[in-house]
Specification:
It catalyses: a long-chain fatty aldehyde + 2 NADPH + O2 + H(+) = a long-chain alkane + formate + 2 NADP(+) + H2O. Its EC number is 4.1.99.5. It is a multi-pass membrane protein. Keywords: Endoplasmic reticulum, Lyase, Membrane, NADP, Transmembrane, Transmembrane helix. With about 280 residues, the chain is mostly helical. Helices cover about 65% and strands about 0% of the residues. Helix 3 packs antiparallel against helix 6, helix 3 runs parallel beside helix 11 and helix 6 packs across helix 9. The longest helix is centred in the middle third of the chain and has 34 residues. The termini are far apart. The chain binds zinc ion (2 copies). The site of one zinc ion has 5 residues, from helix 12.
Length: about 280
């Protein structure tokens, strides 16, 4: 809870006038306990997970094949409405019951301990951007190794095979996983903020951005005009689609965000070989 209730008291505490965003934040959160602000993340995650995949899902379901096929990574595969609904219901329930429930509840004392801020000042845009870059790098590195472990025979058969039920991924499949995988691969998202603590608004934004990134990666589409093309070393949908296409036997493309971990550890060879073979045949 912010220890002052008015903009004047806030300006005195900061030693400068409050920005419009800071005055708004103070007005709406000064009486809100910190744990409420933190748990609001669960509502934000659920709204983002429900709304962000919708445009791609509608394109997959109702887009004319003539228009969409050139951009589909596996154009012969069309996912039914029933499969979309089952995918959403299953993953939303698990997300709500696990990630938004216990993981957020259990992490609250740790979040307070590492110093996630809830008050003023609000972070500058540059600070937010730098923190998000760090969080993505941490998540990518840890996610790479955890995903690689999930491809060990026992872990794949017991846990990871659920996520691979979609050999041709679709937007909602980003969160379609066994509960143990949601907990395992969801944990690195908390490590970045633990190493570099941020403001709670950055924390909310981080969970939305990483959710949207996972949806993009599982979209099943490769658009020529995607802004992600400008992100250095970004893997994207084509990179991850190959991993789903090969399935259990795949020993390539474990990293969830960027391409460099697979390059450094030599787990991009299968994909490179396939690309080179296709180029030779054409
Ligand atoms: Zn996998
Ligand atoms: Zn996947």
């Amino acid at each position: 809870m912010i220890p002052y209730a008015t903009a004047t008291a806030g300006a005195e505490a900061l030693g400068r006038p409050l920005s419009w965003a800071e005055a708004t934040w103070l007005r709406y959160t000064s009486a809100t306990p910190d744990y409420c602000l933190y748990y609001l993340n669960s509502v934000i995650i659920m709204i983002a997970y429900t709304l962000a995949p919708l445009p791609l899902a509608l394109l997959e379901l109702y887009g004319p094949a003539k228009l969409t096929s050139p951009y589909k990574l596996q154009p012969k595969v069309r996912v039914s409405r029933a499969a979309f609904l089952r995918c959403y219901m299953d993953s939303a329930c698990r997300l709500l019951v696990l990630t938004c429930g216990p993981l957020l509840v259990v992490s609250y004392p740790a979040v307070k301990m590492v110093g996630i801020r809830m008050g003023l000042p609000l972070p500058a845009a540059g600070e937010v951007a730098a923190q998000l870059v760090v969080y993505f790098l941490v998540e990518d590195y840890l996610g790479y190794w955890l995903h690689r472990l999930l491809h060990a025979e026992w872990a794949y058969d017991k846990i990871h095979r659920v996520h691979h039920e979609f050999a041709a991924p679709v937007s909602f499949a980003s969160g379609y996983s066994h509960w143990a995988e949601l907990l395992t691969l969801g944990s690195p998202a908390f490590i970045g903020p633990a190493i570099v603590p941020c403001h709670v608004t950055t924390f909310w934004l981080w969970f939305v951005v990483r959710g949207v990134q996972a949806i993009d990666t599982h979209s099943g589409f490769k658009f020529p005009f995607s802004p992600t093309k400008f992100i250095p070393f970004y893997g994207g949908a084509e990179f991850h689609d190959y991993h789903h296409y090969v399935g259990k036997q795949c020993q390539s493309h474990f990293a969830p965000v960027f391409t460099f971990c697979d390059y450094i550890y030599g787990t991009d060879k299968g994909y490179r070989y396939q690309k080179a073979s296709l180029a030779k045949d054409n």
